[in-house]
TrEMBL record:
Species this protein is from: Peucedramus taeniatus (Olive warbler)
Gene3D superfamilies on file: Cadherins, TCF3-CBD (Catenin binding domain)
Chain segments carrying region Disordered: 635-663
Protein name as it appears in the record: Cadherin-15
Entry keywords, A to Z: Calcium, Cell adhesion, Cell membrane, Cleavage on pair of basic residues, Glycoprotein, Membrane, Metal-binding, Repeat, Signal, Transmembrane, Transmembrane helix
Biological role: Cadherins are calcium-dependent cell adhesion proteins. They preferentially interact with themselves in a homophilic manner in connecting cells; cadherins may thus contribute to the sorting of heterogeneous cell types. M-cadherin is part of the myogenic program and may provide a trigger for terminal muscle differentiation.
GO CC annotations, alphabetized: adherens junction; catenin complex; cell surface
């Protein structure tokens, strides 16, 4: 192994210090040497920042002598040291020495002033704060070397006014209160000029502003500006402002310590006044909440107190002006008259003769301190039934009061009266007069209807329901009493009258009577006080009785007796009527089927049941094979078409069967062609032939069974029940429902 070589001292270069801002340029820093060759035989060079790296051109070396020079002023705040490499080569370029380090240290100078982080510092402290209460901290920086006095800062207050209320920590820059007595009402803002100096206070300096705001506390109570206030207000005024009471508070305007709260302590037992705070001026606004009456009380003396919304600080002094007296005078004004009883309700018998006094309806004038006269007039009298004394207020009937009348509302007649004083300007009031027209029993009940028909056979059918009406209202109307005239006692042998309800009775025959007209005198009586009765004639027609006890009309009675038209002829006539109606119905049904097939896009077909075919009996309810419509290609064109089950046995069949549709789209034409063939066959009755099962008599309130006979139109038919028959009838329900 080769022993380590000893490096000569001349080639080991210690750090070189040079002051920043050195002005003698160029300046020799150091000379490096190598003893490997004779002087003049070595080439020296340096590399690194300041030479061939940024910043360029600061250092240079004489390549023959090895002298290193400073060529520019240095700034420690930009570069505090430079690390270079020195090289030694012979004239042939061979390395004579290993590269060595050359460190140049820039020595700091106090060339930078301190800088505050802000130009203006802001702080807050409550008024009355104790000494030593810290408010804020100001701080500054110095770009010089922090390890030297060049960056050692000290803080001070240059100016804060004569009071000297604040102090500053020279090292930390913290500002605190120095003494007691901070009062926002005396001085709300303090402006301090603070200074920062380096070299421990003896070097370069800089200044800034410190603004300290005092925060308000409630240390000043509100005070009335004077002890007494006087105001006026008109009587009967409510919801109006009477006036203001003025206060003063030294605390910060708009803060809870400034806002005032007023209370009425005395002088208003009825609660006629209220007081609130004006949020802009902080004054108290007195208002009237209940109408005042000058005739009852013409002046008020109120005791009002004031305090802040926020409680007063315990250390704050009390106020001698926390109470004030407010005197309010009530001015007299003209007031409208008033009807004490409004509405006035009275009762008058109907038929009261004209000129009859019915009431005296007067008003009173609340202005008792003024001499005024009231006059009266009718403001509303729709039937012109009344007349009024304009001075006394006496109401009389002008014409007879009748009942019933279109001007009555539930038996009451409404009129309006006007009372007016003679002040300037005059005031008026309206009174409502409600007159109940009492019913008088002045009408006897009337038989309704005055005629009727009944079967002349006792028991089944030999009864007639009688009714009555009365123009009088309860309690002079029903219940009614029906009886045969006492003047004709012989009527009781054949007739009887029994009560049915309060307005009706039942007339019944006691013996079989011959057909013909009868006149029965009846006595009808109401339940009035006193009761009114009247004898009236009831015209009764005794008819021919059917088997069920009902009257038969002329045609059916003759047929039953064996006279007139025969039953077979009657069936032929009914059949012709049914055929005419069926023709119209089939036309509509054909159009309906066509529209149904065009609108239906889903296969709702299941089994087609002929529910509306009444001509063939129960055989017509056999299901139609729907597969012929769904799959026509499965059936042979030569197959024999199905026979119509309602056709006569002797009816012939077509010589050749119709061609079945080739696809589902031809089903409509297939059905229409079959329908046309069936309609044109004279030997087959229609599907909807009506069957006459039995004759049920006349006079029934029920409609005929056949919809064709009862009506030839669909407007009066109710098909809403189809929606309750399930999904198979949903399409018909949509069409007819």
């Amino acid at each position: 192994h080769e022993a380590p070589r000893r490096v000569k001292r001349a080639w080991v270069i210690p750090p070189i210090s040079v002051s920043e801002n050195h002005k003698r340029i160029p300046h020799l820093l150091v000379q490096i040497k190598s003893d490997k060759q004779q002087p003049g035989g070595v080439i020296y060079s340096i590399k690194g920042p300041g030479v061939d790296e940024e910043p360029l051109g600061i250092f240079s070396i004489d390549k023959f002598s090895g002298k290193v020079f400073l060529n520019a002023m240095l700034d420690r705040e930009e570069h505090d040291r430079y690390r270079l490499r020195a090289f030694a080569l012979d004239l042939g370029g061979a390395t004579l020495e290993d590269p060595t380090d050359l460190e140049i240290i820039v020595v700091d100078q106090n060339d930078n002033r301190p800088l505050f982080r802000q130009d203006i510092f802001t702080g807050h402290v409550v008024e009355g704060a104790e000494p030593g209460t810290c408010v804020m901290t100001v701080d500054a920086t110095d770009a010089d070397d922090p390890d030297t006095d060049n960056a050692a800062l000290r803080y001070s207050i240059l100016e804060q006014g004569a009071a000297g209320m604040f102090s500053i920590n020279a090292t930390s820059g913290e500002i605190c209160t120095a003494r007691a007595g901070l009062d926002r009402e005396t001085m709300g803002v303090y402006n301090l000029t603070v200074q920062a100096a380096d070299m421990s206070g003896d070097g370069l300096t800089t200044t800034a502003m410190a603004v300290i705001y005092l925060e308000d506390i409630n240390d000043n109570p509100p005070e009335f500006t004077k002890e007494e206030f006087s105001m006026e207000v008109e009587e009967q005024a409510a919801g109006v402002d009477v006036g203001k009471v003025f206060v003063h508070d030294k605390d910060l305007a708009g803060s809870p310590s400034w806002l005032a709260k007023f209370t009425i302590l005395e002088g208003d037992p009825e609660g006629a006044f209220a007081i609130r705070t004006d949020p802009h001026t902080n004054d108290g606004v007195l208002s009237v909440v209940k109408p005042l009456d000058h005739e009852v009380r013409d002046r008020f003396e109120l005791t009002v107190s004031v305090q802040n919304e926020r409680p007063l600080e315990p250390s704050a002094p009390g106020s001698p002006r926390a109470l004030a007296t407010v005197r309010v005078r009530v001015r007299d004004v003209n007031e409208a008259p008033a009807f004490r009883e409004n509405p006035r309700r009275i009762s008058v018998l109907e038929g009261t003769p004209p000129g009859t006094p019915i009431t005296t309806y007067t008003a009173s004038d609340p202005d008792t301190h003024q001499m005024q006269t009231l006059s009266y007039a009718l403001l509303y009298d729709p039937a012109d039934w009344l007349q009024l004394d304009p001075h006394a207020g006496t109401v009389r009937t002008k014409r007879e009061l009748l009942h019933p009348s279109a001007f009555l509302q539930g038996g009451w007649y409404i009129a309006l009266l006007l009372a007016r004083d003679d002040a300037e300007p005059p005031l008026s009031a309206t009174g409502t007069l409600s007159i109940e027209i009492l019913e008088v029993n002045d009408h006897a009940p009337q038989l309704q209807p005055p005629a009727g028909t009944l079967c002349g056979r006792p028991g089944r059918g030999g009864t007639l329901l009688l009714g009555a009406t009365d123009d009088d209202r309860a309690p002079h109307g029903a219940p009614f009493h029906f009886q045969l005239s006492p003047q004709h006692p012989q009527l009781a042998r054949n007739w009887s009258v029994a009560r049915f309800n309060v307005t009706h009775a039942v007339l019944a025959v006691l013996a079989e009577l011959p057909e013909g007209p009868y006149s029965l005198p009846l006595l009808l009586r109401d339940s009035g006080t006193p009761p009114r009765e009247q004898q009236q004639l009831l015209n009764v027609s005794v008819c021919h009785c059917g088997r069920d006890g009902t009257c038969l009309d002329g045609a059916l009675a003759a047929a039953t007796a064996g006279a007139g038209i025969t039953l077979g002829a009657l069936m032929i006539i009914l059949g012709m009527l049914v055929a005419l109606g069926a023709a119209r119905v089939r036309g509509r049904r054909r159009a309906l089927r066509k529209g149904l097939l065009q609108r239906s896009r889903d296969d709702m077909r299941d089994n087609i049941l002929n529910y509306d075919e009444q001509g063939g009996g129960e055989e017509d309810q056999d299901a139609y094979d729907i597969n012929q419509l769904r799959h026509p290609e499965l059936f042979s064109p030569r197959a024999k078409p199905p026979l119509r089950r309602d056709a006569p046995l002797s009816s012939g069949t077509p010589m050749a069967p119709r061609k079945l549709p080739s696809g589902p789209s031809d089903i409509e034409d297939f059905i229409n062609e079959g329908l046309e063939a069936a309609d044109s066959d004279p030997s087959v009755p229609p599907y909807d032939t009506a069957l006459i099962y039995d004759y049920e008599g006349s006079g029934s309130v029920a409609s005929p069974l056949s919809s064709i006979v009862s009506s030839l139109t669909d407007e009066d038919q109710d098909y809403d029940y189809l929606s309750e028959w399930g999904p198979r009838f949903r399409r018909l329900a949509d069409l007819y429902g």
